[in-house]
Structure formats: C-alpha cells, structure tokens
C-alpha cells in the first residue's frame, strides 16, 4: 500500500470513529428525550390531573399518554402543588448535584467555556428527575434545559471515557446539546445551529460544532419520532406573507417584544438575586418559589406548567387579547419564581409561549384597526415566538429556523428575519443566558488559538515605532573600555559589529558578569571573546508569533531586527515586553 493510500485509509478510519461517537450521542439524547417526555406525561397525569383536576391543553403535535381522570378542578390544590414539587426538587438537587439548579442550557454553556466541556455524570439523571417534578407539579419552565444537559452530559462522559482532549470533549458536549434540543422540539436543523450559536452574544458561531451537532441532532430526532410520531410540535394554517405594508406592524411588534424580553430578563435575574440573599437552606428556596408560582396559578392557571396548548390556540386566533397579555406577563413571573428560586427547568419553552402571546395580542390589535393589512393575527403569534427568544437569548439565526421547524411555517421567514434582526440589535446588552461570552476571543476555550491567530497576522514592521536604536560595540574593543560605556547606560543587550560595520554577534549584561568580577583579565579580553556568534534575529516581515517563539525558546528578552535587503545591517532591538503590550492593545481595539 502506497503512502497516499495509507493516509486515505487513516482519514477514513478517523472519520468513521467520530461518526460512531456522534451517532451514539444522538441515540442516547433521543432515548433521553423519550424518557423525559414519558416522565413529563406521567407527572402531568398523576399530579396536575389526578390531584388538582387541572388539564392544560397540549399542542397539536403532542398526545395524551393516559386518559384524563374525572377529578374536579381544585384551585386550592393547585395553589400548594408547585410548592410541594419545589420542596422535593430542591432537596434532590441541593443534596446530590447543586450545579443542576436553574436552567440547564446556561450550565452547559459554562461547562463549554470554563470547564473543558466536563459535566459530572450524575448531573443528567438528577436534572431529569428534578425537572420532571418541578414542571409537572405546576412549575413554569421548558424541557430543553434538562434534555440539553442529558445530551451534553453523555457527550462529556463519552469523551472522558475515551481520554479525548478538552477540545474534543467540548465538541461532543455541544453535539449533545444540539441533539437533545433538536429531538424534544422536533427541530433537528435548529438544534444543531442553536448548539453552535448560543455560546456567544455576538453573531458568532462555533463552526466546529455545527456538523457534529447536525449528525447527532438528526439521529436524536429520528429516534424520538419513531416513538412519538413524525410531524411538528405546533400545527398552523398555511400563513402567507403577501403584503409589504404588513412589515409596519411587524416592526411595532419588534419593539414590544424587546421591551417584554428585557422585563423577562430583569425579573428572572432579579428573583435569582433576591433568593440568593435569603439566609435559609437552599433546598427550601424552590418551595417558596413554588408557592409564589401557585399564588399566580390560583388566579391564572394557564400560566403554569408548559403552556404550549395556549400558544397553539393563539395560532388559531382562539384566545382573547386580555388573556394573551395576562398569559405573557404571568408566565414571566411564574417562570422566574419556579426556576429563579433554584427549581429545575428550561427557559426556551416559556419564551416561545410569552413571545407567542405578545405577538398574538399585537396582531389582534392591529387586526381590529387595519384588517385589510393584518389579515391573520395568528401569523404574529409565530413571528412573536421567534422575535422574543431572539431578543432574550441573542440567537437570531437558530431561533428563526427553530420556529419555522416547530410550526411548519416557512412562508413567514421574511417577517421573522426582520423581527429577529431588529430584536437582536436592540437587546444585545441583555441575555437570559448569563454564561454567554461576547465572542470566541473572550472564550478561555479559544484563548491560545485566538492569540496565535492574531499574532500571525501582525508583523514586526507594524511595531517599527517600538524598535529601539541601540549602541553597538566593535568586536576589537577592549573590555576595559567597554566598562566605561556599561557604567553610563541602561542598555542590556549589545550588538557587536566588525570593521566593515556588519553585525557579527551579540552579548547581554549577564554575559559580562564573569569578566567584571575577575581581576587582571579585562585588559586581555576584547568584546569578540564575549559575544555570541550564533545570532538569532528577526526582520520587519516576520510575524509576531514566530518572534515570540524565538524569544521563548532561548529565554531572552530582546531580539535584533535586521534589514532583509542589506545583510548584516542592524535596524535595532525589539523587546518581548513591547510585543506583548502591542498585542494587548490590538485585542482591545478589536473588541471595541
């Protein structure tokens, strides 16, 4: 077998091994989504239905696991049920895995940037059980956080077991996020893009994640749909965008969504801050949050649990304007109390309900006044879902695809793109994912890569103003004469020139110590005897990465800069400290 054939065979083997990993992650994430969906269905049946007689509607793409009970609706049970769920969930999380509190996607983002993609193997199991209890006893939250941690946790576990590098573990962890989210929301393409986009606030994708997450997401989606059937989470009429004048109301919707998203983020983290100040045991806090959730649910039951059924009704224009506004505002507070107090659940699910409700309210109001332009308020529900989460999460691209896949409404891509872009631009300062970093430059996961990339784009010629002109000494100069020069200068490195004026060597202040403190030889020594002839130098065209490598390998602080066009002609010395300072200033300019 020839060399090329061996290389090709090796590449195929490596690709096959990685394909196996990503397919395996997709299978586990898909099975995790199936298990979590079953647990949520059973919890809703035995807690909300059997105990409180509350039976929230489901979206068109979901069906009952068990038939409804005949229990009469009891608001008082509904009042205390979220508190009971919070108590159990809080004890479970803070006893076995405190990092499983809150919304799981943010914890996965933190693991990607700061923990080398490492997630403790127990986290997915604790997160699954705690989230099931929180959400099926009336707590408001989404399914994507727990399922993202299931996929991410298994990807991290697999990479650790096979002793893979931190970079490879981060990629496998992110592939798990995409697989879990893509399966539970039946949106495989969006799941892959979301895993790559959600890591940063700026419009920056983790490009090396997209293909692995795409493979895992497709496998997870197919696994999930083989059990629960194919199709989308929501059903929607065949909305069409045909009137450019409708963009005016959509722009108004953008501003409403931004204000609502800022309120959501402020309330959410305000509640987290308040609960952190409470000097009570952590496992009690979710129970208090559950009680506050139950109080809101006592008056507005439709703000509890998932709320997808209300969003489905809003798409078909079956919900009144006051109810839509109450749903949006109530959902903000029930989600904040349920998860911000330490409960377990996701924030994407509530976001699409809040955004859909506000979009529906705005659409119905415009339909009342300009029915010839806004003919279908339901289209505003779908665009509102996309715009709100784009504003809250800084993920405009994946969100557009998410909503299109979840509702099968691809004809609304144009207004969705407009609304999501405006929402993103107006709300860049805020995000529901506090562990998002600004860009790849700010991520510890890419610190070395970014530094090397930037250094390779800069040349010594860019630092010409920092090159120091220094005094040279002749190679035949007696050491006794050099001592007089040395006593009057702060220069540490001394280039040595020959009689032709060309640089023939260099020495440092450290090299002269032995001669200075040795009596009776300074008249015998000339500078040629002290200098180093193996001269390491640079030119104006050499990049800073190469220069720093030279400085580091020889452990020296300055390097001669030679004129490339004239052999032996010295321009000056460049200091290591000046190179690093210039790099830091350059990075600040890039960030600004």
**Widest sheet, order of strands:** 1-2-3
According to DSSP, the number of beta strands is 6
Summing up helix and strand content along with how strands pair, one would put the structural category as mainly alpha
The CATH superfamily label of the largest domain reads Clc chloride channel
What is the 3D form? elongated
Approximate strand percentage: under 5%
State the order of secondary-structure elements, H for helix, E for strand.
HHHHHHHHHHHHHHHHHEHEEHHEHEEH
For the record, the CATH class of the largest domain is Mainly Alpha
Query: Within the CATH hierarchy, at the fold level, what is the topology of the largest domain?
Result: Clc chloride channel
Number of domains: 3
The separation of the N and C termini measures: 54 Å
CATH architecture of the largest domain: Orthogonal Bundle
User: Mean pLDDT, rounded to whole units?
Assistant: 88
How many helical elements? 22
- Stretches with pLDDT under 50, minimum 5 residues: none
Rg (CA only): 32 Å
| Helical content band | 55-70%
Tell me about the biggest sheet? 3 strands, mixed
Give me the secondary-structure topology.
Elements: H1 3-52, H2 75-96, H3 104-114, H4 123-136, H5 144-161, H6 166-184, H7 188-197, H8 207-228, H9 247-277, H10 285-299, H11 308-315, H12 321-340, H13 348-369, H14 377-393, H15 396-407, H16 413-426, H17 447-457, E1 473-474, H18 479-486, E2 493-497, E3 503-508, H19 513-516, H20 527-530, E4 538-539, H21 544-554, E5 558-562, E6 570-575, H22 576-591
Parallel strand pairs: 1-2, 4-5
Antiparallel strand pairs: 2-3, 5-6
């Amino acid at each position: 077998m020839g060399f090329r054939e061996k290389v090709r065979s090796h590449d195929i083997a490596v690709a096959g091994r990685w394909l196996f990993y990503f397919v395996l992650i997709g299978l586990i994430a898909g099975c995790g989504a199936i298990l979590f969906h079953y647990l949520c269905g059973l919890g809703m049946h035995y807690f909300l239905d059997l105990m409180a007689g509350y039976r929230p509607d489901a979206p068109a793409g979901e069906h009952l696991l068990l038939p409804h009970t005949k229990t009469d609706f009891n608001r008082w049970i509904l009042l205390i049920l979220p508190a009971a769920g919070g108590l159990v969930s809080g004890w479970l999380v803070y006893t076995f895995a405190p990092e499983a509190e809150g919304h799981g996607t943010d914890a996965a983002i933190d693991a990607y940037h700061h923990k080398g993609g490492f997630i403790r193997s127990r986290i997915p199991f604790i997160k699954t059980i705690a989230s099931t209890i929180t959400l099926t006893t009336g707590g408001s939250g989404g399914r994507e956080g727990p399922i993202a941690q299931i996929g991410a946790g298994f990807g991290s576990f697999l990479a650790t077991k096979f002793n893979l590098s931190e970079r490879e573990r981060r990629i496998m962890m992110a592939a798990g996020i995409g697989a879990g989210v893509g399966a539970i929301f039946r949106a495989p393409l969006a799941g892959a893009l979301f895993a790559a986009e959600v890591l940063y606030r700026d419009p920056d994708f983790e490009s090396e994640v997209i293909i692995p997450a795409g493979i895992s997401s497709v496998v997870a989606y197919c696994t999930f749909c083989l059990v629960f059937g194919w199709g989308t989470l929501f059903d929607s009429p065949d909305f069409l965008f045909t009137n450019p004048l409708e963009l005016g109301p959509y722009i108004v919707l953008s501003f409403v969504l931004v204000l609502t998203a800022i309120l959501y983020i402020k309330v959410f983290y305000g509640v987290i801050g308040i609960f952190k100040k409470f000097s009570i045991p952590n496992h009690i806090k979710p129970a208090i949050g559950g009680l506050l959730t139950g109080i809101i649910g006592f008056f507005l039951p439709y703000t509890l649990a998932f709320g997808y059924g209300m969003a489905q009704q809003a798409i078909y224009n079956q919900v009144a304007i006051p109810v839509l506004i109450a749903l949006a505002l109530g959902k903000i507070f029930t989600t904040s109390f349920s998860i911000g107090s330490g409960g377990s659940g996701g924030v994407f699910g509530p976001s699409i309900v809040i955004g859909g409700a506000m979009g529906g309210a705005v659409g119905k109001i415009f339909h009342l006044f300009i029915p010839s332009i806004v003919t279908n308020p339901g289209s505003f529900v779908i665009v509102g879902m996309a715009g709100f989460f784009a504003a809250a999460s800084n993920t405009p691209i994946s969100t557009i695809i998410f909503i299109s896949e979840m509702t099968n409404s691809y004809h609304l891509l144009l207004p969705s793109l407009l609304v999501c872009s405006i929402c993103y631009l107006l709300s860049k300062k805020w995000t529901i994912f506090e562990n998002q970093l600004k860009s790849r430059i700010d991520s510890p996961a890419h610190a070395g890569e970014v530094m090397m990339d930037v250094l390779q784009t800069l040349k010594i010629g860019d630092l010409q103003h920092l090159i120091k002109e220094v005094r040279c000494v002749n190679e035949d100069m007696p050491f006794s004469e050099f001592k007089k020069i040395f006593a009057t200068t702060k220069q540490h490195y001394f280039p040595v020139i020959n009689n032709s004026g060309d640089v023939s060597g260099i020495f440092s202040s450290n090299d002269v110590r032995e001669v200075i403190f040795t009596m009776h030889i300074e008249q015998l020594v000339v500078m040629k005897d002290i200098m180093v002839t193996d001269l390491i130098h640079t030119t104006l065209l050499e990049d800073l990465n190469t220069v720093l490598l030279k400085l580091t390998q020889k452990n020296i602080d300055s390097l001669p800069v030679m004129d490339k066009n004239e052999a032996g002609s010295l321009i000056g010395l460049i200091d290591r400290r000046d190179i690093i300072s210039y790099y830091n200033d350059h990075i600040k300019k890039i960030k600004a």
